Structures are given as C-alpha cells and as structure tokens.
Amino acid sequence: MYDCLVRLRKENSLYRGASPSVTTMMISNGVFFYALQVVKHRLDRIRPGERTFAGRLMPRTGTGRTLLASSVAGAVNVLLTNPLWVSSLRVMESGGPSSSRQPTVWSVMRDVARDEGPGQLWSGTASSLMLVSHPIIQHVIYGWFKGLLLEGRGRRTGGPPRPSTALSPLEAFLFGALAKAVATVVTYPLQ
C-alpha cells in the first residue's frame, strides 16, 4: 500500500478526481436528504395501517416508515444522480498527471451524452438501485441481534423483554458492526 501511495504521489495523481468526487457527493447527499424529507412528509399524512396508493398497508411503526422513506429517497437519489457518478468515475480514471488540465464532471457528462448517447449516463443504475437495500438489510440484522439479546435477558428474568432493557454502548457497537458486515457481504457482488 505504501508503494502505491508513493507512486501516485510521484505521478502527481494522488488526489486525481477528488474535486469531482466531492462535488458529486455533495449533490448526491443533498438530493437524498431533500427527497427523504419530502417522502417523510408525505408518509406522515397517511395513517398507520391505512392502504396506500399501491394498495399496501402503511407500516405501523416509525421504523417501518423510516425504512420505506429511506428506500424511496435512495431510489430517487440513484435515478437523479447516476450521471454524476458515471462522470466522476471517468474523471478519476482519466490518464495523465494532475498538473495537466483535468476534465470536469460537467464536461465529461456532455461528452458521454454526445459520443455514447444519453443512456450511457445511467449505466449501472440497476445495480445502484439494488444497493439501496444495503441499509435496510443492515437495519433488519441489527434489530434481529438486538431482539435476540433482549429476549434472552427477558427469559433470564422470567418475563418478556422490558422497554427499559437497553443495549450497552459496546453491545450496540458490536451489533452495528456485525449488521454492517452482513449487509456488506450480501450486497458486495452488486458493488
């Protein structure tokens, strides 16, 4: 790893693509959080258990609504920002030392649309949409681990798990790390 860093520094390409990546990340995060707030606002207008436009029941729990809102916002984000990610990746992969004039995300998007067709800007969209499932898997696994632990504690005390029974910071960290690892393994082929 050290040799790679030294080589990239000598080639003046250690931070090639950093600016387009930061720009793309800022726009993508802005789109996601804006979409998340809009979706949450819309979901708050639907009563728990009420049928939605698709005929499905609205989740009764805050967790279910949060997962639904996050999923919809993630999908909107992917659909709107995929061209930026495609262009940003191409800027990072562009050859030449960083002292030469680097293309911008916007110029690369224009060139891709002109030379390869606008559809190419959405290459990889299907995989990215499937990756929206990553935080959902992580959340479900975390909840499963937490439920198992609290259920086990309830059995030892002779009753059901009590709401006052909370995870310690260490338990929350470990379950979070395990849930992240499981979600990463499950979604890794898509990345």
Q: What would you note in describing this structure?
A:
The protein folds into two domains: 2-123, Mitochondrial carrier domain (Mitochondrial carrier fold, Alpha/alpha barrel), CATH 1.50.40.10; 133-190, no CATH class. Helix content is 69%, strand content 0%. The longest helix has 32 residues, at 62-93. The chain is flat. The chain is an all-alpha fold and 191 residues long. The two termini are 22 Å apart.
The portion of residues forming beta strands comes to under 5%
CATH superfamily of the largest domain: Mitochondrial carrier domain
Shape: flat
Class based on secondary structure composition and strand pairing: mainly alpha
Mean pLDDT across every amino acid position: 81
What is the domain tally? 2
How many distinct helices? Answer: 7
Give the low-confidence spans: none
CATH architectural designation of the largest domain = Alpha/alpha barrel
Proportion in helices: 55-70%
Strand segment count: 0
Oligomer: single chain
Major pleated sheet: none
**SSE pattern, N- to C-terminal:** HHHHHHH
The CATH class of the largest domain, by name, is: Mainly Alpha
Radius of gyration: 22 Å
How widely separated are the two ends?
Answer: 22 Å
